């Protein structure tokens, strides 16, 4: 008994120590971003980004708002449009497809699902050029649709949705709804979608993060700066910073503001995630 206590204490210490190191490793860039956003160009180039000496966050925000008629916030609105609308529509399509794969039997079902799994293995960057050629044929290059349409399809979201449907939607509930006279769309919308809401939120968060951080697709599709998302706009500013150091505070402060929607999305949807899990288990 006496030997178990020291071993248990050492195990807990090792686990807690590893967790602390992991937290420090993940929070270190955010802490640097918080402090560096308060510096002017001279403070950043001097290498004292971790101190709050020469606090100038308000000045940096004012310069971002004033630069080029506030184009940064145009980029911000574009990113919210691409990520918000794109992730919402993609999540609904993915859940509907996963629901269909789980509930219905049709010819070639597993072969078609195999193609979906094959799509998971293909990197999105490899599809950027073919999608550009298709968009050029249709005539939507350098428009909002050139970025929105490709993000509506997510093979991994379809796979994940089928897994969630298999775990959270009992066949008995669907049969009971059909016996009561509900149509297939009503069954999906009122029962299937509600029961698999944790999967919907999961796919939404994954896709929102992916689209918000998306860089290569907008780089290929867009040439008009007014259509840029934040990732591409900040890249353009950072490219200019090598020649004009005054861009450095704009890039760092803009990067700090770009993190805010991701934090809000994860914090606000976490409650719905847990509530959905509980509701699914009760049903």
Automatic annotation (TrEMBL):
Subcellular localization, per the record?
Cell membrane
**Gene Ontology CC, one term:** plasma membrane
* Principal subcellular localisation of the protein: membrane
Keywords on this record? Answer: Cell membrane, Membrane, Sugar transport, Transmembrane, Transmembrane helix, Transport
- Asked if the Swiss-Prot or TrEMBL record annotates the protein with the keyword Phosphoprotein, the reply is no
Every ABC transmembrane type-1 domain range: 76-268
Known InterPro entries for this protein?
MetI-like (IPR000515), MetI-like_sf (IPR035906)
CDD domains referenced in this protein's UniProt entry, alphabetically: TM_PBP2
Q: Report any one BP term from Gene Ontology.
A: transmembrane transport
Bilayer disposition of the protein: Multi-pass membrane protein
Transmembrane stretches in the record are: 14-35, 80-100, 112-133, 145-170, 191-212, 247-269
A matching Pfam family: BPD_transp_1
Keyword Transmembrane listed? The answer is: yes
Q: Which family does it belong to?
A: Belongs to the binding-protein-dependent transport system permease family.
- PANTHER family according to UniProt: ABC TRANSPORTER PERMEASE PROTEIN MG189-RELATED (PTHR43744:SF12), ABC TRANSPORTER PERMEASE PROTEIN MG189-RELATED-RELATED (PTHR43744)
Q: What is this protein called?
A: Multiple sugar transport system permease protein
